[in-house]
Fold this protein.
Amino acid sequence: MKIEELPTPCVLVDLDVLERNIQKMAEFTKSRNCGLRPHAKSHKSPFIAKKQMNAGAVGVCCQTLIEAEAMIMNGIENVLLTHNLASPGMIDRFLSLVRNGDAKILVDGQENAEMLAKAASHRGLTVGVLVEVNVGNNKAGQEAGEPAAKFASWVSREGGLKFKGLQCYEGNLQLTIPNFETRKEQAVPPLQKITSTINALKRQGLDPEIVTAGGTGTYNITAGYPGVTDIQPGSYIMMDRRYSEIESAGSDFEQAMTVLSTVVSTPTDTRAVIDLGWKAVGIEYEALGWGGMPKPLIHGVTYHTGGDEHGVLNCERPSSRPEVGDKVKFIPAHCDTTLNLHGVFYGVRGENVEVVCPVARR
Ligand SMILES: Cc1ncc(COP(=O)(O)O)c(C=O)c1O
């Protein structure tokens, strides 16, 4: 099948580019003597996870239960769920993954840890857990240093749980600081928090097997930092408009994901209407002031959202206006949320569609 035959709007993933991105990150982490635990939230697909594992990944991270289920049920057996669970039904579903593979999860407080411990013990299981540490993201996580280490010590004595290490993702640094040197400077305090937590663990007599951190924006800052055993970047495989503006990440990895649309109407000489609205492309970065509109890959047009199912292309000149039936490709502002809007993506090489790949959506 050819790309032009696909129903639109749809997500295309250039498999040659994707494979180069996978290889590049794998070789880089190896050169820093650091493991790679890529985040599957960017692709939600065992098909891509297998490529990452074949390139040497130690496992994958997932952000939702359904992503973790898609991975483990399709043979990706080493999964870290980088989220807390706090409802019995979801914990139960997670425990069925523990029976079927190496599924680990985060805990960051006595409440969620006790719920997990009780459910696991009740079923005669032991769950590998990582203590989540707040290294600056100010979302979930124990405070770094003594508080995190004391909590880890409690976890290590709790039946049903096995303390495996620390989750230290510095999410606040990934997309907020385009300049590389500034980002590197601002990474110093979070990295020091990792060191202080490892040292505090040692004082508690604990030696973490896993200390994981790092994303696409900090991959070459965090990989190789003493004590960090692996990094967990996600977007590097797909890339997007925002990451293309993040110095270093933007030049080190190529754009694999695009969104394909069709021109459905040309009401004026300089306006074309396409079938790409916000139900098919993530535009939420607009609210953060980062530029949330997708970037058209044709000259002389700008995209404006036209609502749920429509996009409007304002054209500089009548000659730059595409015609009804023409296909227009875009680079989405955010790869993760764009993919999450689609049931499948199309893996392509050149103009040929090679694979139709289901997406494990929420
Ligand atoms: C916990 C965690 N780890 C890793 C990542 C990967 O980040 P990126 O896609 O910026 O590489 C994310 C992204 O949101 C995340 O939430």
Summary: Residues 15-238 form a domain with the TIM Barrel fold (CATH 3.20.20.10). The mean pLDDT is 97. The longest strand covers residues 257-268. Residues 39, 41-42, 61, 63, 82, 169, 171, 174, 215-217, 232-235 surround pyridoxal-5'-phosphate (CB under 6 Å).
